Amino acid sequence: MKTTGNWLGKGAIATFLCLGSWAFAQHDPGVRGGIQNTGGGLQQHGIPIPHPPLISPHPITGATVNENERKSFEEGIARAGQLEATCDSCNDVTDGSPVPGELDPLFPQIRTNSNGTGARHNADQCFVCHAQPQLGGSGGFIVPNPADPVPQQAENPQFRLVPHRFGRLNVVPSFERQYGPIREVRFKYKLDGTPDGGVHQLWTVRGSTNDPTIPNCALTQPDFEAQLKAGNLAFRIPLQMTGLGLIESIQDREILAHHDATSTLREPLGIAGHPNRSGNDGTITRFGWKAQNKSVTMFAGEAYNVEMGITNELFPTATEEDPDCNGPNKPLPNDVVRTDKDDHDNKAFDNPIHILPDWMQFQVMMRFTDGPGPDPNPSVSAQHGKIVFSDIGCALCHTPQMQTAPVMLSPVLQDRPVNLFSDLLVHHMGEKLADDIIQGQAGPDEFRTTPLWGVGQRIFFFHDGRTADLLRAIRDHFSPRTTKYPASEANAVVHRFNELSPEEQQAILDFLRSL
Amino acid sequence: MIPELRLRRSVTLVLLLASSVAMSTGQVSREFRRTFAVSLAEPVSLQVDLLDGDLRIAYARDGEVAVSVAAQNASSMDQQSLSTWLVMAQTGNRLEVRERPVVGSQNLKLTYMIDVPYRTEAHTSVRRGKQTITGIMGPVSAETGVGDIEVSYISLEVDAHAHTGNLTFEVVGGRIEARSVQGAIACQRAPQGIKAETEDGDISLAVVGASIAIVKSGNGRIDVGGARGSLVVSTTAGGIHVKAVLREDWRLSSKSGTVHVELPPGSSFDLDAVSDFGDVVIARDDLDKPTGDRRLKQKVKGGGKKIEVRTETGRIAVS
User: Fold this and answer.
1) Cα Rg of chain B, angstroms
2) Are residues B197 and B161 part of one domain?
3) How does strand A203-204 pair with strand A120-121?
4) Which residues of A touch B4 (CB under 8 A)?
5) What's the half-sphere exposure (Cβ side, CA atoms, 13 Å) at A466?
């Protein structure tokens, strides 16, 4: 009896401890506002996805965008929202025009209002991959049946919408899951074993019902499943575009000064970090998962070509040149500065705003989009989490704030704080995150410190979108040294995180979801 | 459904920010600003009635409406006055902004700026002042007594009326109705077309769908480039110039102005051009010379869409 009683007592204590532990179990509170109330979740309720916010007035001087900047911003939204046809003259409505009758006339899903989609592409519309929590955000979900009266639940647009839009005959690879992240792929190695690293576009235009110029297109997709089995795929998910003009406005000296200022704190924790630099002028590059792109202009030109297959001045040749799939009348490059004033079918090109090509207007729009806004009323736990976040060393890489250049042509951008939560440097993250892709001076396991502003409303984390759980995302920063890769520079900080009480860990999660 | 959004329907944030800046001239500029939280779930309906001052309504961000008023020459006014001139009322996503007549405010130069979500419909009336409305879904209806109206980047219909003032439209997704008694009308990139009427003033259209442009009196000219639908164009003394690919029928008429039609080489069309007393000048190889009665009626390249040109005393030129 005594023994039994002891067992019961011990069992009760163990149960209490388990329940107690459960009661305090830290967890990711999820997308702030809920997935159903952000991005494509709103479409289900018949509500257009909110538009990118215009940059807020300068916090000190009160300077705002001037009228030209504002118009460029608005034109940029119209261009970035365009749904691209494939042939150069088969769009349904005038280039760049709003499409009345759509849920959002500036983000049409049914009728095309531009053209130039490449024979191979990842998407046919900028915002289709940048719609969480608003247009211009990171990758999210979109309603897959926008033409139907009863909208289905929003889902990964790469699962049904994009690959089959306008009858296109694409096989959806297994890594594009219905409620998974939007993924594009890079191949790590070529068939001969030499490094590849390039993007291999997911989709082709084969089967397009709205392009009569390519009836004989017979392109096939790469064998993604075989590459997946061979472990040769590196995934990338879309980053948010909001606030990029502010990040671009940070001088190199500001980045380096922050790095220098934390050296004594970083060193004992094994945190190094270094800039990725342009091979041309040696300045710090800062956009993309490996900080491989120098500017929003470079990012825009590359995205138009790589993601949508649209050739432009920066990337003037097509990723797929098969004439059967490009049609006989598709100019190359396709989206270029428009200067033909004598065009009988003119598009009002004597207006300077109309002269710029889509990709360039798109970069102007990015420049004047505000950074993601934090929760204006953070919880007590989130406020505490901000302190703990800094105390354990997260802020040594996720630098809370930098300042833009003191003098810029646009007063709204100059000399203002940017709450980006990134040092804009690349760090070794070890084997767990390594993708074996080398971009500039960013090695196989190195990644840029992802800016955390806006993380509160992101769905997926890391370059490959491997998790939607912030807690796992924090813990996956840890990776021991292996024969192939160094240890993650975040190990010591993750160790500190793991030693925190559940309440303090929860506070950090709450803080991150408030950003 | 959308619980967080519902909570935000109520007015939650009222911010009064008054500032004064001494100007070198001794004049004082004051600014009043108030912010209203609105829901994403429904469009914002904005009604504005102003007596005197410039008005700008523009997209800035979703979830809030911010009303600012800047006053120059405000030395005699205290900061509170600005807020009392305006009546601002919110019911859900419906906002009303109305200017109250105030004695002694005539010398002030007022500028009203209203930042709104994209999904906003606006109905505005300004007795004297310029209106600028940009970047919203619409529809928009705007009326001014004296002052210009500029409307751009509107996704749905626009209806604008100025007694004395110019009307300018750029990138409008829906149909436009534009009327001015004394003023010019300009429109670019309106795929659903425009109906533009002015008693006296120029009309300029570029990249427009099916459109009607009428100058009822005076010397106002009409210039059309990149027409993508049918055209009905008429002036009294002013000239008409249309340069576009012919996609639908055109009817162009002027009492005494020159009518100039420019078409790309190789176009097929039915031309019916009559000038009662003026010349008909042809500068194309595919058209015959006009007959003696100043009329040219011809099918070119087998015929196609119709171009009907009429003038009493003006000249007709086809190139």
Assistant:
1) 25
2) no
3) antiparallel
4) 33-34, 37
5) 16
Question: Does the distance separating the beta carbons of B117 and A97 come in below 8 Å?
Answer: no
Is B180 contained in some domain?
no
Contacts 24+ apart (CB under 8 A), A257-263: A258/A399, A258/A402, A258/A423, A259/A423, A259/A425, A262/A396
Q: Say which amino acid occupies A419.
A: N
Three-state DSSP class for residue B190: strand
pLDDT (tens, 9 = 90+) of chain A, 515 residues, equals: 344 445 445 555 544 444 444 456 899 999 999 999 999 999 999 999 999 999 999 999 999 999 999 999 999 999 999 999 998 888 898 888 899 899 999 999 999 999 999 999 999 999 999 999 999 999 999 999 988 888 999 999 999 999 999 999 999 999 999 999 999 999 999 989 999 999 999 999 999 998 999 999 999 999 999 999 999 999 999 999 999 999 999 999 999 999 999 999 999 999 999 999 999 999 999 999 999 999 999 999 999 999 999 999 999 999 999 999 998 888 889 999 887 765 545 555 567 777 889 999 999 999 999 999 999 999 999 999 999 999 999 999 999 999 999 999 999 999 999 999 999 999 999 999 999 999 999 999 999 999 999 999 999 999 999 999 999 999 999 999 999 999 999 999 999 999 999 999 999 999 999 99
B37 and B128 within one domain: yes
Please tell me whether residues B116 and B193 are part of one structural domain: no
Is B171 part of a structural domain of the chain?
Answer: no
User: What letters, b where the CB count within 10 A reaches 16 and e where it falls short, cover B286-302?
Assistant: ebeebeeebebebebee
Cα–Cα dist A510/B174, whole Å: 44
The count of structural domains within chain B is 2
A344–B63 CB contact, under 8 Å: no
Considering only CB atoms, A105 lies closest to which of B173, B188, B206, namely: B173
Tokens 């289900």 found at:
A44
B170 close contact with A: CB closer than 8 A: yes
> What value does the CA radius of gyration of chain A take, rounded to a whole number of Å?
24
Cβ-based neighbours of A475, under 8 Å, separated by 6 or more: A494, A497, A498
Inter-chain touch A346–B192, beta carbons under 8 Å: no
Domain end, chosen from B109, B132, B165, is at B165
**Is B5 near chain A, with CB under 8 Å?**
yes
| CB-CB under 8 Å, A54 with B173 | no
Query: Hey, of B15, B59, B151, B318, which one would you mutate to test binding to chain A, going by the most A CBs within 10 A of its CB?
Result: B59
Is there a single domain that holds both residue B90 and residue B16? yes
Give the domain range for residue B123. Answer: 1-165
Contact residues on chain B for A97, CB-CB shorter than 8 A: 171, 173, 189, 191
Among A31, A32, A37, the strongest candidate for a mutation testing the B interface, having the largest count of B CBs within 10 A, is: A37
Q: What is the pTM (predicted TM-score) of this model?
A: 0.89
Nearest-Cα distance to chain B for A248, in Å, is 21
- Let me know whether B206 and B294 are in one domain: yes
Task: Judge: B226–A345 Cβ closer than 8 Å, yes or no.
Answer: yes
B220 and B117 in a common domain: no
Of A75, A345, A351, the CB nearest to B245: A345
Domain assignment of residue B175, yes or no: no
Q: What ipTM did this prediction achieve?
A: 0.87
Same domain, B16 and B161: yes
Q: What is the distance in angstroms between the Cα of B31 and the nearest Cα belonging to chain A?
A: 12
Does residue B241 fall inside a structural domain?
yes
